[in-house]
């Protein structure tokens, strides 16, 4: 079961994400932990994301648990090159290790989602917020805290400049 405390969009607070259990098929575990920790990732970037212990080709989005990285090769802003996001959460890495060779997100039948909108509907069903609510909340929190290093990381991972983030994603700290 996932325990999330202090997730409040109006006060842009995201704290205390606790994950109990270790079943890699548990949709709540994978979705919640990944989105709340790395919530600036688009659902279209995650629906075909392979969990692996080595690097993959340049056409595959994957999580390399040995290198502790999420590598997004196929994304909306392809012209900016691949995105590499460091994973610094050992508990999440332990959960992901149990799924090596599988995809991060699958349907209840174990199949890949055919579209990001189909995945987004399932996400909404479980969490009563869409994936972009979390993207906006995490962006707002980052901007409100004013940590320059984290803001630059946010720009790189989202593929947007600060002006775009402030205009479209910083909605809870205005």
Features:
174 residues; alpha+beta; four-stranded mixed β-sheet; two-stranded antiparallel ribbon; 40% helix; globular; disordered N terminus
Summarize the structure.
The protein has 7 helices and 6 strands.
Compressed to H and E, one letter per element, the order equals: EEHHEEEEHHHHH
Overall outline: globular
- Bin the strand percentage: 15-25%
Tell me the total number of β-strands.
6
Backbone structural class: alpha+beta
Number of helices: 7
* Tally of separate domains: 1
Radius of gyration: 15 Å
Helical content band: 25-40%
Mean pLDDT: 76
First-residue to last-residue Cα separation:
33 Å
Largest β-sheet summary: 4 strands, mixed
Read across the widest sheet, the strand sequence of neighbours is: 3-4-5-6
